[in-house]
Amino acid sequence: MAISGGKDSLVLAKLLQEICRHGHKDFDLEFICMDPGYLPPVRAKVKANARQLGIPLQVFDYPAFSVADKMGGAKPCFICARVRRGALYSQAQKLGCNKLALGHHFDDVIETVLMNVLFAGQYKTMMPKIHATNFPGMELIRPLVYVREESIIRWRDYVGLDPIDCACGVSQKKEDGSMRAVTKKLIGDLEATYPGVVHSIYRSAENVELGAVLSWKDLMGDRHHFEDYYEARGKEGPGVLK
What we know:
Blueprint (H helix, E strand, L loop, with lengths): L6 H16 L8 E5 L4 H14 L3 E5 L2 H8 L4 H19 L4 E3 L4 H15 L8 E3 L7 E3 L7 H11 L19 H15 L3 H8 L10 E3 L5 E3 H11 L6
Parallel strand pairs: 1-2, 3-5
Antiparallel strand pairs: 4-5, 6-7
Helix pairs in contact: 3-4, 5-7, 5-8
């Protein structure tokens, strides 16, 4: 699994380690950490936290931060995520792994939904598992998608960890911080006024009505527009979209 050094990946690492030791599923674990350009004290903190948890961490270097800074333009976070993902897939394959586990949680999922709507003009969620496009035989999994961030924070405080935060110099250059930070605040403000709104955001990805959207892409990447089916739908009913 991939460990960034933050609280989310650390709790997932410990959970998977315990399941591997005491669970009923037979699998092997490799714990990898990509250093995308951390300052020396940050890298040292990542290693120290892994030692505290008894996690045998393997660190490798890849200049994701500098690549995102040079090529990211207005969307450095998007470029950084893609670059880091590819490097992690590659390293995992070298170690003989067939799955890459990431520590994204429930709040990451709903933030991603709103980020895509507000900043990318598309509706797309963060899937619990996906097959890698450019790395045959590899699969990405997110075991924490139903876990709230507040639960992870309580675990962090209980065990006395001091994980790293984002440690990204690219987003810190922006006056308002990253798009994710802006979205997180927005969701927090909404939840304070309308309790339960976070669950509605999550469920929206489970209740998409194709007959009530303007266009969509199918699993093969082909785009469909509502006008392509409009007349047939009026004659034959909703079943024409199936």
